[in-house]
Amino acid sequence: MNPRHHSEQTTAPGPRALPSPTAEEQAHQERLTQRLREEITAADGAIPFDRFMELALYAPGLGYYAAGKHKFGELGDFVTAPELGPLFARCLARPCRSLLGGLGGGDILEVGAGSGVLAADLLRELESLGQLPEHYLILELGAALRARQAETIRQKVPHLFRQVRWLDELPRDFRGLVLANELLDAMPVTRFKVTETGINELYVGWDNQHFAWREKMANDPVRARIEPLGLTPGYTSEINLRAEAWVRSVADILKQGALLLIDYGFPRAEFYHPQRAQGTLMCHYRHQAHDDPLRLVGLQDITAHVDFSAIAEAGIDAGLELLGYTSQAAFLLGSGLEQIMGASDPGDTRVHLELTQQIKKLTLPHEMGELFKVIALARGVPEALPGFTFQDRRGRL
Q1: Which domain holds residue 97?
Q2: Residue 282 and residue 370: Cα distance in Å, rounded?
Q3: Is residue 150, in this structure, part of any structural domain at all?
Q4: 236-291 pLDDT per residue, tens
């Protein structure tokens, strides 16, 4: 079993056999397919891919993240860093403590909290460090995920459940830390293709009982972003305009504190590398990865890597300061990973072995250590957070 997106994909893997959906899953897929077909028909035969991805993931009651299906962990489709064990949260607690201490208090707002395990483990570690937030806020739109998060937190840290509140939207004013682990990768992306005559945007239509790609001339904002890159005809990739807009919306409400984003991706020069001529879209279904988002609608995760240069630019343009950017491995090492490992008792073989396995998954270059990056954008924060002092990669953006 592999953690989600742990290895870099530089070429499209092509069609592959995937596990067969159950009868219940097939019925669910058919309902969402009908919903998508209705929208495609209403749009004269094709909808932009970002709209297709939005509905496939978030259509109320039908989208992948909006339905009740287990997504995280061994019973789901992928494993995220917090699901590997508490080590990730224990390291993350150090920069959280530093920020909240420097502000003299504040809240933590986690956006897209998954199963709730990161929230529970982070609260427990911050309690042990003597720096609990005033409130732990979770912005989660899906009712099924909210219920699972509440269950996880009640089971793991029942005495801290009162610290947690769920939100339907970003607060108007915020002071503290906004945290998002593997959030940006699941935001709907605009997909484009370079042709001999210009830049086309990719749409989705319906053909011969299947979803099918369509192309239309891209609008001015998309062309303005892609043309300066000098990509060769045939090059196909993505722009995450929604992620950039989301960063700006966080900047609007962040009065003092930091936005800490952990995700997989690259600086722009690496994102649009010639080896990634088919883009970075990746789908996950029962721990199987493939690159066709038009299959298994509503049953599979659809993701795209993050252009961290674009995220940094969006934050800076909105008045935030780029506080740090580095790899996940370097961030965890700067956040006390070695000290936590050093405090482990080698005599407790089971615990020590589990900790060692977590470290390998989180930090080795061929696992999550290098592909995953951490970026912090801040307002009114006087000094760098622990985690960015070990290695500073801001110059690569």
Answers
A1: 41-189+241-385
A2: 18
A3: yes
A4: 999 999 999 999 999 999 999 999 999 999 999 999 999 999 999 999 998 789 99
